[in-house]
Amino acid sequence: MTLLVISPDYASHLLPLATLAAPWREAGESVVVATGPATEGIVAGFGFQRVDLVLGRGSNPGVIRAEQQPPGEDAALRGFFDATRHGMVATLRYQAEARRTDLLWDPVGRARAVLDVVDRVQPDQVIVDHLAFSARLALTVAGVPHADVVLGHPSALPVGAEVYGYPPAWPAAFAASESDLDDLHRLCRDVRDAFTAEWNAALRALAPGATPSEDAFAEHGDLLMLNYPQALHDPTRTALLPPHAFLGSAVRDEPADDDVRDWLAADDRPVVYVSFGSFLSARGDVLARVLDALRPLGLRVAVATGSATGLPDVPPDWLVRSFLPQVALLEQAAVMVTHGGNNSVTEALTAGVPMVVLPFSTDQFAGAAAIEAAQLGVALDPNAATSADLCAAVRAVLDGPAPQLARTIGEDLRRSPGRDVARAALLA
Fold it and tell me: Which residues form the signal peptide (predicted)?
């Protein structure tokens, strides 16, 4: 039996998809990953075969830097980082505008490349990233059954009256005027309609006579899998989803280096783990404020700095690196300070770790709102929170109900690993 995994050339997408595929390899079956060259090392590390498939202009091997992107993509990335400095609405507006060109890059050409991979690999089963729109379009046109994995917050698949790109919820710390929100909603509707027109044009080129889509963002595969804990999802929204499986999380095995293990074993004080992920680590100004906030707490601190620059000096007993084994550190952490990316949220919850969330973009706002509503942490505006605010938030999380609530949900998630849920759902 052969499983084909289709992923954009981004580590944050491929890592959970590869984790879901691991049980096939462990069962002695073949796993082929179709992705770009930047994540070749990740594919090899999982022991899978890679076939080349480029689905977009950009890539990210683990820590993204604008200067490493192709011309045009570098400017777009810098524009995005600048937008995050102006707040939630400005960022969501920037991302909505960018969707006019980045989510369906060369859709007909990419769809035909996907079908060529399918012809060569002849898979028995297919797992595809939900955001790989051209790949899903190709599989749908060709009638290839596939599992469609929503790796971010479930709001990445709009239901009911939702509009893609307009968060269905956001934390109390984020305020916006009614007129600004109306303008954002109108823009997201316009982008939805333009995106759907582009999807339908590609559909006509690939399959003349096919039924056009009314909302391409709401299209989904044969089997919908959500990399998210059902316990955090609004039951009224769950009722609107198509047939689905909540995976809970897709946490990979990630052993720590010897020096990280030695650092963890050297002291029994609680550990604060800090990371803004592969993209938002570029906001070194916010990371600097977080580091200043943690100084007076007397806790041990591990910081994955990513691409951040201009950071202050820190105590010599802190663990500071551009990259750290997040899964291994979360197993020992008492609290995580995070941007609220879905991988970070689900990995923290699986380890039973509460959070201070500083969301910057996309579905991070909806994810942070869910954390706040479930009392699993505190959400703050990264552009407005002072060091004093951040220090108080960490204290409030550690001293409140969040640690016990996080431990409980972590126990549930570890009892039913997402990789096992995914395999069972796909085989069924």
Answer: none
